[in-house]
Amino acid sequence: MKLSFLRYKDSKISHFLKRNKKYGPVLFFMGGFLWDSLTLGRIDRVYDITLLSSYMILLTTCLYLFNRIGEEKWKDSFFRKHEVYFPFAIQFFLGGLSSAFVIYFSRSVSLSKTVAFFVILVFLLFANEVFKKRVSNRYLQFGAYSFVSFTFFAFIIPVLLKEMNTWIFTLSGIISLSITLSLIFYIYKASSLIKAETSKKKLLLVVFSVYGVISLFYYFKLIPPVPLALDKGLVAYDIHKAKGKYEVSYEADDWYVFWRDHKINFNYKTGENVYVFTSIFAPTDLKKKVYHQWKWFNNMTNDWETTDKISFNIIGGRNDGFRGYSYKSNVVDGNWKVEVITEENLVVGVVDFKILSIKKSKKRNIVKKTF
């Protein structure tokens, strides 16, 4: 074993890694993101749960070891000899968790107020590139850890309990906070080095600040109701259901508008109904009431007015999401949107469109698709 290690130290790979070690954290971080992008699918899959749980456990372990190996009693230990790799490992697991959250949240976020929390996740994802220079900063370490920990449990707890509401979100925060504080207090108690270098009050202030900010985001409805996600949202001219399938008639947008299937301009003919079709992903066996909240922009008041709020219950488990639709007649021209929301008024997604009245003789390029 020792001979193999000596050979590795003198190998071309070892010298290459030493010469380019400054790029190591970035490569490890982006490696985590690329791996998750290729492998993650459903949050309720055994693979996804196992992978994210492993990342969380290993990140916790690495943080513990990184903050203990500087002590004298660890001087000749295996971990002390390889302490140079801990910043890489911490970055990899932070990158893996952050990228997974970005992937999951991107399925729930639309161009609405919930995009603010998504931007924070993306910022955390790319800000970690400079983490190597700051990895010894324990305030940053545990600030990032508390953020990903809270987000992790906000995903996992609803999946395991097959229920989601304000109480579940609060429980997720309590579990996350308890684990983070336990880790900090244990390390602080066991390490005289950390006591000398780190203010416990400042460290706790950072952790509680992160917890408070996420809680405020939830209170002001700025966080999408994960693990729910809007898989599909279309404004349509007609919808027929037969043999468990939905045939949706709509005008498709240009091929380069990859973020939306339907045309933003809805060519409306007098007397027709306007339909909005959605499919919502939910974990297996999770039941939830959601609403289609129709809103019209009033140019006189310069504000959105709610015209209808139609509810239906969804049941999780279907790969392509739980399908449903609502419709409205006697509409007026202007900007419209249908917000897909939960009972807690959290926005799952938004379907935007603009109604333009046209003559009945005018042709429309309508396509039909089955869901």
Describe the protein:
There is one protein chain. The chain is α+β, with helices and mostly antiparallel strands and 371 residues long. The chain contains 12 helices and 11 strands. A 5-stranded mixed β-sheet has the order 4-10-9-6-7, with no helix packed on it. Helix 4 (46-66) packs antiparallel against helix 9 (138-161). It is elongated.
Outline the fold blueprint:
Elements: H1 2-9, H2 12-19, H3 24-39, H4 46-66, H5 78-81, H6 86-106, H7 115-127, H8 131-134, H9 138-161, H10 166-190, H11 192-197, H12 200-219, E1 229-236, E2 238-242, E3 245-251, E4 265-268, E5 274-281, E6 287-298, E7 303-315, E8 322-328, E9 334-342, E10 347-357, E11 366-370
Parallel strand pairs: 4-10
Antiparallel strand pairs: 1-5, 2-3, 3-11, 5-8, 6-7, 6-9, 9-10
Helix pairs in contact: 3-6, 4-6, 4-9, 6-7, 6-9, 9-10, 9-12, 10-12
- How many independent structural domains? 2
Question: Which regions contain 5 or more consecutive residues with pLDDT less than 50?
Answer: 1-8
**Backbone shape:** elongated
Instruction: Kindly report the spatial arrangement of strands forming the biggest sheet.
Output: 4-10-9-6-7
What number is the mean pLDDT?
Answer: 84
**Biggest sheet: strands, sense, closure?**
5 strands, mixed
By DSSP (H or I, 4+ residues per run), the number of helices equals 12
| Residues in helix, % | 40-55%
* SS elements, strand count: 11
Structural class: alpha+beta
- Rg over C-alpha atoms, rounded to the nearest angstrom: 25 Å
The end-to-end span amounts to 58 Å
Name the helix and strand elements from N-terminus to C-terminus, one letter apiece. HHHHHHHHHHHHEEEEEEEEEEE
Strand content: 15-25%
